[in-house]
Amino acid sequence: xxxxxxxxxxxxxxxxxxxxxxxxxxxxxxxxxxxxxxxxxxxxxxxxxxxxxxxxxxxxxxxxxxxxxxxxxxxxxxxxxxxxxxxxxxxxxxxxxxxxxxxxxxxxxxxxxxxxxxxxxxxxxxxxxxxxxxxxxxxxxxxxxxxxxxxxxxxxxxxxxxxxxxxxxxxxxxxxxxxxxxxxxxxxxxxxxxxxxxx
Length: 199
Fold this sequence. Notes:
Strand order of the largest sheet: 1-6-5-4-2-3
Structural class: alpha/beta
Number of helices: 9
Largest sheet: 6 strands, mixed
Number of strands: 6
């Protein structure tokens, strides 16, 4: 009788363990939703902003913008600054969050939404969570980005689900438009350089 109970306990624990990634530590699911018309408009505007880097010394396909969720007021825009600042952590999202927090004089961005041309990597998504951002809306996926360079292939929604912090993850939104950044001729040499450097 005891061995049957132990087997059942084991099966239940395995089943719960497999289900755990689908829920946050608080036991609540965090849905990945499709974007709104406003989300699409903001992503298109962010793509245009990020496209401006293609004629700069440091072209990048990664841009981010932070809006006040309630009013729609733009707080900060930034692009990936890894090459420009020789800082491997200066991804577009982290760069925007740092600048936004410095501007506000607080480490919290509760009440704000972050838009990004590409799904945040685990580092960037973790930063969004620690900053208490309400929503993250992304364009291209991390799998898309992996075709052009090194990536940690963990979806943003998975990072959120494994935390005890609330954040709605939305995407992909305007994915094809965001992929134009990766396909831009100016990026070809950059991707080769990044791969050679292990970036």
